[in-house]
């Protein structure tokens, strides 16, 4: 299993030749986005992107609990995602679009009524309020044996390009642009609900009164946090804005789902062979030692926003589609990993074989990251020079991971839950293009030559490898071969060098300058 320059080059060339013309038009009427969008049929969509996360689930999935205690975590996650999807997409409730769950993190979109900023922003805010109340007052009491869960939310509003790509039944909705990006970036991981200034300014004054301005030092911007409100205040707001959420109905659906998916039907096990993630479900889950890899196309949000302003969004989408398809090919075909899902301009992958072999799992994950970097620098930028300002930033972490496919029928999402998943996703944030970031627990499993290509960053508490393309790594590995004893034999035909002793040969260790 390895990356090959010519193979990668040929794959990308073939994809570009067969891609066809890309169409980007403004969305001016209601539509079923899953049916409308494709790799070449794209839309500029004005809407509010909302992320709502339950960070506790990662901690719970990482615990060493066994038996019914662990089954209860899986059951709770499944039921949570089912009911949240109903709340988001219910025509009589929020009438939004559940794009997908990234682990326990919901990504939803509101774009109806078309271009109605006030109504769209209002729904984004009220959804966060409802989900916080749902978790606190409905969900937690139904799972008294679990620690109380809390939610973190973020929302932004504006135009983003909607598209859809993937392989046959593996196609996913994608949204590219600042709103889809910043809604996720302003999440805090704690019990807070936030919106950007753009959302706040679009709200009616009656809703603005429930916010407090705070400074986000990470992003150096002012954001607005939703204050805690009483049940009576929330019910009044929902009535004023015609949102028909019924907490008693949600509670009853949770109770019904508990009967449909009792603990004794939920199974989990380790994996003897590579996981077929699409064959998993609530009754068949995997719990494995795995490396999570997140490959992020750094600079793409800025790139897509600039090209859209210059009316050249088609070129940016052509770059993205080429990068994403090759990312998937590298993970699945070159290194036999699992491509979990795409999240905007980044890919999530998982490596868990050979079973329990942490050293080989870590090495394969790092080799994949090097291949992603190599493709970006040596292939994509050669075939698509307009991608010169982009980079690849990759994060890797390793740990026990829950792998499944959960949610509502017909809309189940691939799920990987663990602290290691969250860490790997966080590492590329703020990274410069060309960086591969790994913790000590991954670095210690690499061979000596590869370890030396990573530098410890005290401020970030991570090892960082910069611009590690395949050719650079191969040179380091070959140099490493000459840092052990070699054997020289002289004769009439001259001198020969070998790594193995022969009759009459003399051994010596080459100087470090020769090895380097």
UniProtKB/TrEMBL annotation:
Region (Disordered): 493-516
UniProt domain Guanylate cyclase: residue ranges: 291-428
Compositional bias per record (Polar residues), positions renumbered to this chain: 500-516
Gene Ontology biological-process annotations: cyclic nucleotide biosynthetic process; intracellular signal transduction
Domain of life: Bacteria
Gene3D superfamilies in UniProt: Nucleotide cyclase (3.30.70.1230)
GO molecular function: adenylate cyclase activity
Record's protein name: Adenylate/guanylate cyclase domain-containing protein
Organism: Edaphobacter paludis
């Amino acid at each position: 299993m390895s990356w090959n320059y010519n193979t990668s080059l040929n794959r990308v060339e073939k994809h570009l030749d067969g891609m066809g013309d890309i169409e980007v038009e403004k969305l001016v009427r209601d539509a079923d986005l899953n049916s409308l969008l494709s790799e070449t049929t794209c839309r500029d969509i004005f809407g509010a992107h909302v992320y709502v996360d339950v960070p506790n689930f990662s901690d719970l999935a990482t615990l060493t609990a066994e038996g019914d205690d662990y089954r209860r975590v899986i059951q709770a996650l499944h039921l949570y995602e089912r009911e949240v999807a109903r709340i988001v997409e219910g025509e009589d409730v929020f009438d939004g679009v559940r794009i997908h769950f990234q682990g326990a993190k919901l990504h939803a979109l509101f774009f109806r009524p078309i271009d109605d900023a006030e109504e769209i922003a209002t729904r984004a805010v009220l959804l966060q309020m409802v989900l916080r109340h749902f978790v606190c007052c409905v969900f937690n009491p139904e799972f008294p044996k679990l620690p109380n869960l809390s939610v973190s939310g973020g929302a932004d509003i504006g135009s983003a390009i909607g598209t859809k790509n993937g392989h046959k039944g593996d196609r996913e909705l994608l949204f590219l642009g600042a709103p889809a990006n910043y809604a996720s970036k302003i999440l805090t991981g704690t019990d807070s609900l936030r919106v950007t200034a753009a959302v706040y300014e679009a709200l009616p004054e009656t809703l603005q009164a429930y916010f407090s301005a705070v400074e986000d030092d990470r992003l150096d911007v002012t954001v607005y946090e939703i204050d805690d409100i009483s049940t009576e205040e929330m019910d009044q707001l929902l009535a004023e804005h015609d949102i028909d959420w019924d907490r008693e109905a949600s509670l009853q659906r949770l109770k019904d789902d508990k009967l449909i998916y009792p603990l004794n039907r939920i199974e989990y096990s380790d994996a003897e062979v590579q996981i077929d993630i699409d064959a998993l479900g609530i009754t068949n889950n995997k719990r494995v030692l795995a490396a999570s890899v997140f490959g992020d196309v750094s600079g793409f949000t800025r790139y897509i926003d600039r090209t859209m302003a210059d009316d050249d969004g088609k070129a940016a989408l052509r770059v993205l589609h080429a990068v994403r398809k090759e990312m998937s090919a590298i993970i699945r075909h070159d290194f036999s990993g699992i491509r979990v899902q795409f999240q905007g301009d980044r890919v999530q992958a998982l490596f868990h074989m050979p079973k329990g072999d942490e050293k080989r799992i870590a090495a394969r994950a790092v080799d994949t990251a090097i291949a992603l970097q190599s493709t970006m620098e040596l292939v994509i930028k050669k075939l698509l020079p307009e991608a010169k300002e982009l980079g690849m930033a990759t994060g890797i972490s390793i740990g026990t991971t829950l792998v499944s496919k959960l949610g509502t029928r017909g809309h189940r999402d691939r799920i990987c839950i663990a602290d290691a998943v969250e860490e790997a996703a966080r590492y590329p944030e703020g990274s410069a293009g060309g960086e591969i970031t790994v913790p000590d627990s991954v670095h210690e499993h690499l061979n000596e030559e590869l370890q030396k290509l990573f530098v410890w960053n005290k401020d970030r508490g991570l090892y960082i490898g910069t611009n590690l393309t395949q050719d650079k790594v191969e040179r380091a590995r070959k140099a490493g071969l000459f840092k052990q004893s070699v054997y020289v034999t002289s004769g009439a035909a001259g001198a020969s060098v070998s790594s193995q002793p022969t009759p009459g040969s003399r051994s010596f260790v080459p100087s470090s300058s020769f090895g380097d």
